[in-house]
Design brief:
This protein is elongated. Strands 4, 5, 6, 7, 8, 9 and 10 form a 7-stranded antiparallel sheet that branches. 49% of the residues lie in helices and 19% in strands.
Length: 693
């Protein structure tokens, strides 16, 4: 059996969620397709398939049969960004208002009736068919595929108007069908705008060393290990390590932070950031889609696949809405015997507004947030975050700076302090824990050399063990080395809020190391803001001892649980979830990955460049800044407020329109104009999310 492959296919012509569903259904029917997600914002289909059973031409044919196209070449993502500005939105609204005003005035003054009597019906029918041919052709194709669209009902309305001889009414309906198409395309493009602006930031070329020369090549041709040259004012095209040079870097594209950072040899830099001052030689580590920025773009594009319950509800409603409208139209005709009222019912129905109500707002929020360093993986997480009532917080690297320093080295059992520190630093040599880094930094500061440890073992939540010079060296907390519990100085150091590490040689304690971390300066205010936003319960979860945890929790006024292993944190999350709470877990994404994944919403701090944080969390904060936590909560609530207003407005508008049309108070001409207005309302309301404060 052949392995399945993942294929991304660009699709043009999709204007709403209904379009995406048609494309998805067409591709899913093909033999060899295992799964397919059609992403409206990214204008592409992500297909898992068996390449031995299906190929791209077959997929292109299926997409075209659904009424859409797969382009031969992909145009740059930023090609159409600037044309969808605020001025264009205002211009569209003004033009629409003028056209609507002319229609209303003409209907009121009876000009349409005069025109209808003046021009023979056959000529009128020819004009209607010519003007509406592109739409009629799409409706015919959809009908052959047994699909009903909003244009199907409007076309029936046109036919009804022509049957009773009202060709002018039919022509006005056609005009607004075409205007409505433009409005829908415009609305969809505005929803995509934030994503496209993000994509436009991706670097296109790189200056690479080839032998003794510097050559400018497309980014796609850069390979890991290449040496890339970046001059002042240029974009960094890869994720890599600086091997020479010094520069001031604007990292706003990744972190959303306007303050630049200084980098030099040994520093890590990210693609899409800009060298404001200075030049760099960089060893490429990741290129293209594998860079941090490339992965951010991919996750933002795919966020549409993670739909919230409210979005799935809107999709289901759209599926049933058109048959219901057809039923109302039939009932109207049976009761009133008025073909124009029946036509008006068919024309005023606008299912696209229901389909657009949720995704337009979600896409606007997710795209705008990504540009500010907030990576939200889907609407379902925004929806869950808006309802969150419990926040659980990791300590090291999350509440604190994650850069503890060793404050005390206390020798035991006659072993010199420098020897004990040297043994501890050697044992910790391959550990990535912040406390291990602190031990190594102190050893380097004292010019101590590290030996090569053997049989290194990291014990999660406890410490490390390794062979050094033939002896077993253990560095960890009191759970790993129980003999340390009776040491008199241990309690005193812990009472000072310090984290205790015990160094043992062949199970005999030879030193106590005390470490202190620094609380992030913005954390107390951010915690207070979470409370002000209505979060009922905030709790600190840490592997540290009781005294250290109590000291930190006391500063913040939160509850705490100490001496927790990673599996203990998961158990805490599950316990709150079992009691009906919506749980947010905030961590640094390294040892908190399981708890982040288990929580309803996992938020990873400082995720830039950290694979496990970006993968495990549902929301990744690309910089270490606690003010982003209440900020993303506000964004979630604001987004859900916009979504609910969109749905409420659309439901109310359509209900009023259908009622007026059914009782004969809304003629087909005005019904045609009215059906395009909800899209503009949704666009205007959702656009507020692009301008996050």
């Amino acid at each position: 059996m052949s392995d399945s492959h993942l294929l991304e296919v660009p699709v043009k012509g999709m204007d709403c969620a209904e379009c995406a569903q048609h494309v998805q259904q067409a591709i899913a029917k093909l033999h060899g397709v295992e799964s397919v997600d059609v992403l409206l914002a990214a204008e592409k289909a992500v297909i898992r398939l068996d390449p031995t059973r299906i190929d791209l031409p077959a997929i292109r044919k299926a997409v075209e049969s659904a009424g859409y196209t797969v382009p031969e070449t992909i145009t740059p993502a930023n090609a159409s960004i600037n044309q969808f500005s605020r001025r264009m939105t205002i211009l569209l609204a003004v033009v629409f208002a003028i056209v609507l005003g002319i229609v209303v005035a003409s209907e009121w003054l009876g000009l349409f009736d005069q025109l209808n009597a003046l021009i023979p019906l056959p000529i009128g029918i020819a004009l209607v068919v010519a003007g509406g041919w592109p739409v009629f052709r799409q409706v015919a194709r959809a009908t052959l595929r047994r699909q009903i669209t909003s244009h199907t009902l409007m076309t029936l309305g046109v036919i009804a108007a022509l049957i009773v001889g009202e060709w002018v009414a039919a022509a006005i309906v056609v005009i607004f069908m075409r205007v409505g198409d433009y409005v829908e395309r415009f609305t969809a493009e505005n929803a995509r705008r934030a994503v496209k602006e993000l994509t436009a930031l991706a670097p296109q070329t790189a200056r690479v060393e080839r032998g003794d020369a510097e050559v400018e090549v497309p980014v796609a041709e850069v390979q890991p290990g290449d040496t890339v040259i970046v001059r002042p004012g240029e974009q960094i095209p890869v994720d890599g390590e600086v091997i020479a040079g010094y520069a001031t870097i604007d990292q706003a594209a990744i972190t959303g932070e306007s303050m630049p950072v200084e980098v030099s040899a040994g520093s890590h830099v990210f693609a899409a950031t800009i060298a404001k001052l200075g030049s760099l030689r960089i060893k490429a580590l990741r290129v293209g889609a594998d860079t941090t920025f490339g992965r951010v773009i991919k996750l933002v594009e795919e966020a549409e696949a993670h739909r919230g319950e409210v979005q799935r509800l809107a999709d289901r409603f759209s599926a049933y809405y058109l048959p219901v409208v057809a039923g109302i139209a039939a009932l109207t005709f049976l009761i009133s015997r008025n073909p124009l009222a029946t036509a008006a019912v068919l024309v005023v129905a606008c299912s696209c507004s229901f389909a657009l109500a949720t995704p337009v707002a979600m896409l606007a929020a997710i795209g705008a947030s990504a540009k500010r360093g907030l990576l939200i993986k889907g609407g379902k997480y925004l929806e869950a975050l808006a309802k969150a009532d419990v926040v659980l917080i990791d300590k090291t690297g999350t509440l604190t700076l994650g850069r503890p320093r060793i404050t005390d080295v206390i020798a035991l059992n006659g072993v010199p302090a420098t020897e004990a520190l040297q043994l501890a630093a050697t044992a910790e040599r391959y550990s990535e824990h912040p406390l291990a880094t602190a031990v190594q930094e102190l050893a380097r500061a004292q010019n101590l050399t590290f030996a090569e440890p053997e049989h290194f073992t990291a014990i999660p939540g406890m410490g490390v063990r390794a062979k050094v010079n033939g002896a077993t060296i253990t560095v960890g907390n009191r759970r790993l080395i129980p003999a340390a519990a009776s040491l008199p100085l241990a309690a005193q150091l812990e009472a000072e809020g310090k984290t205790l590490l015990v160094v043992a040689r062949d199970d005999e304690p030879i030193a106590l190391l005390a470490a202190a971390d620094t609380l992030r300066p913005e954390t107390p205010a951010a915690i207070a803001e979470l409370r002000a936003l209505g979060i009922k319960h905030i709790e600190l979860l840490t592997g540290d001892n009781e005294r250290t945890a109590a000291a930190l929790a006391g500063q913040l006024g939160v509850q705490y649980r100490a001496q927790l292993l990673p599996e203990d944190k998961i158990a805490v999350v599950k316990d709150y979830q079992a009691r009906g709470h919506t749980v947010v877990m905030v961590g640094d994404g390294v040892n908190d990955a399981p708890a982040l994944a288990q929580a309803d919403i996992g938020i990873a701090m400082g995720a830039a460049g950290t694979d496990i944080a970006i993968e495990a969390a549902h929301i990744a904060l690309m910089r270490d800044d606690w003010t982003l936590v209440p900020q993303v909560l506000r964004i979630a609530r604001r987004t859900m407020g916009v979504v609910k207003l969109n749905i409420g407005f659309t439901a109310g508008y359509n209900l009023v329109g259908l009622t007026l049309a059914a009782v004969g108070l809304l003629p087909p001409t005005l019904a045609a104009a009215a059906q395009s207005l909800p899209d503009l309302g949704i666009l205007a309301n959702s656009a507020r999310l692009l301008r996050q404060r």
